[in-house]
What we know:
The complex is a heterodimer of chains A (268) and B (291).
Chain A: H1 6-29, H2 47-52, H3 56-89, H4 95-103, H5 110-123, H6 130-154, H7 158-166, H8 171-200, H9 205-208, H10 216-226, H11 230-253, H12 256-264
Chain B: H1 3-8, H2 11-38, E1 42-44, E2 48-50, H3 56-63, H4 65-97, H5 101-112, H6 119-130, H7 136-143, H8 157-181, H9 185-193, H10 198-226, H11 230-236, H12 243-254, H13 257-285, H14 287-290
Antiparallel strand pairs in B: 1-2
Amino acid sequence: MSRNGPLALIFHTIFVIVMVAPILVVCLVAFTPEGFLSLPTNGFSLRWFRTIAQYPEFIHAFWVSLGLGALSSFVALLFAVPAALAIARYRFRGRDALAALFLSPLMIPHVVLGIAFLRFFTSAGLGGSFAALIIAHVIIVFPFALRLTLAAATGMDRTVEMAAVSLGAGGWTLFRRVTLPLILPGVISGWALAFIQSFDDLTMTVFLAAPGTETLPVRMFLYIQDNIDPLVTSVSACVIAVTMTALILLDRFYGLDRVLAGKGDTGR
Amino acid sequence: MSAVAEERNTRAPWALTGPALMLFVGVLLVPLAMTVMLSFHDWGQYKGIEPVFILKNWKEIATDPYYAEMFWRTFRIAILTTLLTALLGAPEAYILNRMSGRWKSFFLLVILGPLLISVVARTLGWALLFGGNNGLVNKLLMSAGAIRFPIPFMFTETGMVVALAHVMMPFMVLSVWAALQRLDPQIENAAMSLGAGPLTIIRRIIMPQIMPGVLSGAIIVFSLSASAFATPAIIGGRRLKVAATLAYDEFLNTLNWPLGAAVATLLLVALVLIVVGSNALIERRYAEVFR
């Protein structure tokens, strides 16, 4: 295998630095001891992390985001697992169209989805409610839940199921004791990826959130629009930490390259 | 119940997909149809939304040069972002692919990881780096002698393109990376044994084979950039509007929902046409690669 030349390695180094720099600078500024935006050159301080405690709207938004992400990803899986099993196992008329419909939230700009949901939920009398946020998030995370469950269901060894059937298992028992445990790594990874997508979404949620149901990205965005100070960097650092935790979980359970490679295909 | 019998069963797949299908029809297709309808409704400062069928909003978008300029800016930013990600992302994917196992997976994680980190946090990072006229980026570029005067990044299209390119870069690297995985390394060796230099190999052997990957990455990056919201809103500020931020303003500040719905519908239709059209073009042009 041929190696990269020095020029290629210089390009690569600059590329990686530029990719990491914005994230790194947010995390560094979060530790500044000063009262203004600056890199922590005079030692590290946690003062801006402590300041978060004085802003209950950030704390509340964090819990909203966490609950919304966990719940909407779970509900999405309730719909996605049976759908994935059907798409993986049966060849039926309309199968391709169904799969395309289920993946379509990836193709529709989130700003359009936000507007459509705002219009829909307002006329349904659910405007600004947590229930509306859950339903909307179920739709946008559905493709991620479906994709990973589908991959697991397609790659599953069916002979184990057949053995269970021959031993008299059927219906619910078959699903709960045999099928579900076999596809569980895919299901859990699907949940984690769906959670991250829900936890990070701004563009759609900004249309639906009302005071009281604002998620963390929405709260941060509205705050940044007024002014940028070290407080918002320490909040961002916390968000990055949560995402990193989910990322590491995802990597352990499933392999991050597989998750992301699946995601990259979506545009085709 | 054997597997064969199971696959002949025609009712089971619909029973399994039924709940999801109903969810999607009820909570996705209906709201989208309602939005298209909304774009034909009337609106007034005092009377609010009137459910009539008129072309007022569409006429306004078609005749007022403000909207033409805004859509042109949106697509100009998306095109420049796409070019930047292709020019930098494709070589990086190639370099990444030539690395040895351990480093390869480490750097792949470093480059693709940001994909899952909040766009607000990533854009905030750029706002900090740009930070007025004496931000870190300008200081670095000036001390390196690349520029003599600071470039204004905040509240400019330049800044939007740089920050958007960073946000979208993982999609391009991923797409080219996938194309490189399909490539047979022996072809490169064969070219080398026939006396081709490294530049010739890249131009004649690698480029034509990864082009479909670059193009499908470009489609993803373009459509996501053209509909991006967070980055243009934070870097562009309140005056430099793109389609997504304008629609947001119409909905949540001006409260002219029908006009906002028309902008969103136009964006959706334009993007679907561009994506479907270029997909078809690529598949025809590179049919042999996809086979």
